[in-house]
Amino acid sequence: MTTDLNGYALKNVKTLDTSDGYAFTATLHKDGKKVANVENSGHGGPTMVWWSTRAHEDVFGAWVATLGSYTYPPMLGMETPLTVSLDPTDPATLKLIAAKAPWWSKVGEVWIIGKGWQAV
Questions:
Q1: Which residues contact 29 (CB under 8 A, 6 or more apart)?
Q2: Buried-most residue among 28, 31, 56, 112 (CB within 10 A)?
Q3: Which of 4, 3, 52, 54 is CA-nearest to residue 24?
Q4: Where are the domains of the chain?
Q5: How many alpha carbons lie under 13 Å from residue 24 in its C-beta half-sphere?
Q6: What is the DSSP letter of 32?
Q7: Please, are residues 40 and 32 in contact by the beta-carbon 8 Å criterion?
Q8: How many CA atoms lie within 13 A of 32 on its CB side?
Q9: pTM for this prediction
Q10: Residue-wise over 26-55: b if at least 16 C-beta within 10 A, else e?
């Protein structure tokens, strides 16, 4: 499995079903050069990325910061579209998070890729 976007490609993808989800490991390449190792343990936590250099992380972060939001069409058992915003300071995103996560009211700052720490 290889996914290519803006010169980025996931390669060497290995997957495993777990009792809590779906685990995977992969390598991330930019323009054919390996820039990171990627893994998710399949237990509901974040996907972890170990960058080869800080420069690779910065270039990726700058690109991601340009993406804004994306709406995924209904699929894989979802009945309605799913909109993902990469900026948690966006008012619509904050409203959605607050409705789903009561603990959100205790959050004062969030890390935004490409922007750093931002007040919410």
A1: 8, 9, 10, 11, 35
A2: 28
A3: 3
A4: 1-64, 69-120
A5: 15
A6: T
A7: no
A8: 0
A9: 0.57
A10: bebbbeeeebbebebbbeeeeeeeebeeee
How far apart CA 9 and CA 31 sit, in angstroms, is: 8
Q: Are 35 and 13 in contact (CB under 8 A)?
A: no
- Contacts with 6 (C-beta within 8 Å, 6 or more apart), sequence order: 63
Distance CA 21, CA 81 (A): 21
Who contacts 91 (Cβ-Cβ below 8 Å, separation ≥6)?
Answer: none
Cα angle, residue 100 at apex, residues 87 and 23 outer, rounded to 5°: 75
The whole-angstrom separation of Cα 1 and Cα 28 is 12
Residue 115 structure tokens: 């922007």
**DSSP designation for 87:** -
